[in-house]
Specification:
Elements (H helix, E strand, L loop, with lengths): L2 H9 L1 E2 L5 E2 L1 H5 L4 H15 L6 E5 L4 H11 L3 E4 L12 E8 L4 E8 L8 E9 L3 H12 L3 E11 L4 H7 L4 E9 L6 E2 L6
Parallel strand pairs: 3-4, 3-7, 7-8, 8-9
Antiparallel strand pairs: 1-2, 5-6, 9-10
Helix pairs in contact: 3-4
Bound molecules: guanosine-5'-monophosphate.
Guanosine-5'-monophosphate binds next to β2, β7 and α5.
């Protein structure tokens, strides 16, 4: 069992069969020790790949993404859920994402200034559920003509369709924790040795 799995069992709260709350160390209060473990897991998996930028979506992806970007020594870029008045005249890439936790659509944007056709992008997010956020970020990278190197997820809920959708899109997906079920108020992890 890795450190993130241990912390989920110790401090996570199962809200219902589909939602896990880990506000005490990742989604609200952030534990730097967890962040350190997360970035070293992602670094180990993707270290042989050329990466020029780490991309995430605000807000909860930002903490793990900046840690990973720091290790790869590349910039971290996050897609914004509202358009800032400071957006450059060069314009924006925009895509519509359905939020799993808020159950609403929003247009997320990145400035064209910060993503170029020669970028090799590692996408990082906190959770993977239906894959909407990751697929939206992939769409933004594609609009820029850049390359998606892979997607790194802290907590994948493997009983939801996100994993399958990303694999079907040909993505190199790496998840630190894979949850098989949140039924009966209990977190059960995927037994990867048995797969
Ligand atoms: P997806 O876009 O894959 O459907 O959902 C991923 C996004 O929804 C993540 O960025 C995350 O913020 C949020 N999310 C999905 N499932 C959960 C969950 O069980 N707990 C929390 N805290 N956030 C979740």
């Amino acid at each position: 069992m890795n450190y993130l799995q241990e912390r989920i069992l110790k401090d996570g709260t199962v809200i219902d069969e589909k939602i896990l709350k880990i506000d005490s160390f990742l989604n609200h209060q952030i534990d730097p020790k967890v962040m350190h473990e997360i970035q070293s897991n992602f670094f180990d998996y993707f270290k042989s790949r050329e990466i020029t930028k780490v991309l995430t979506i605000e807000a909860s992806g930002i903490a793990p993404a900046i840690m990973v970007a720091s290790h790869f020594q590349v910039p971290m870029l996050f897609a914004k859920k509202s358009e800032p008045s400071t957006l450059a005249a060069t314009g924006k890439y925009s895509t519509r994402v359905h939020s799993f936790t808020k159950d609403k659509d929003s247009d997320v944007i990145i400035s064209k200034e910060y993503l170029n056709a020669d970028d090799k992008v590692l996408i990082i997010d906190d959770f993977l559920a239906n894959g909407e956020a990751s697929l939206g970020l992939i769409d933004l990278v594609n609009q820029a003509g850049a390359e998606v190197v892979g997607v790194g997820i802290c907590v994948e809920k493997s009983f939801q369709p996100g994993r399958q959708r990303l694999l079907e899109a040909g993505v190199d997906l790496y998840s630190i924790c894979r949850i098989a079920s949140l039924a009966d108020n209990k977190v059960t992890f995927v037994d990867e040795d048995a797969e």
